[in-house]
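Q: Sequence in, structure out?
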Amino acid sequence: MSDAVNNCSTENSADLPFPDWMRAVQARTEATLARLLPPEEAIPARLHQAMRYATLGAGKRVRPLLAFAAGELTGATAQRLEIAGCAVELIHAYSLVHDDLPCMDDDVLRRGRPTCHVAYDEPTALLVGDSLQTLAFEVLARADLGARQLAMVRLLAHASGSCGMAGGQAIDLAAVGQTLNQPELELMHALKTGALIRAAVMLGALCGDPLEADAEAALDRFAKRAGLLFQVVDDILDCTASTATLGKTAGKDEAAEKPTYVSLLGLEGAREFADSLRTQALDSLAVFGERARRLIALTDFITHRKF
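A: Exactly. Output:
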């Protein structure tokens, strides 16, 4: 592993341009995930192979990036941040495997390759999701993360369950063919997408020194706006980008009659809303000054991403 990867959250990375910093964090995350996941030859081998298939080799790693960037605000070490970032990423990977199942969104393409249940089978994919979820909490619980470790476990559990990501998915499934107003749509996505993105930011901050109450509240506001921004951009890309670019089936939300920000606000309205969320997110970071430069750059990356 290169020095840039090893030092990507410390003072040694201060002068790294954002693209280099991002690649370093992504590489570190990939290497750490590969180490944390069971070896593919370990019994039961097929399940472990499928877990690695669903997790490694693809993905933007936005959640670990957010954890590392937030950790710069509190002086967190790379060793703690890689654990926090990977725990969130394991939850995210599990959610994608389950979301793609025929009983959920029934998709055949994810990250440019067959979804887990297509590459393996439905029972294996179900067990992959279960196993990745439990591994996330094992990883978070067994590491040395300091005095606030229990709070970190609690935060990730809340963000993943019925009051977070799983609850948002339940609302999403119930809303197919329905018309939601904007507050209802925002609530759904604050849970389905936003809760885990918020968890990534706050877990990263918890890896370092405590923030003052007003600074913690500002970071929480940023995390909530960033989570919603990510989903609005996702809705825009679903109807403007190609399947080849996205790595998943384009136009699927419209075909499935799912409520989106584009269906509610129109394409230009959704873009204007995304711009407003970006401004709100960046305004929340003003209290941190230069220390928030990675979070600022990530906000722009989320806003302007093409996949």
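Residues 1-11 have pLDDT under 50 and may be disordered.
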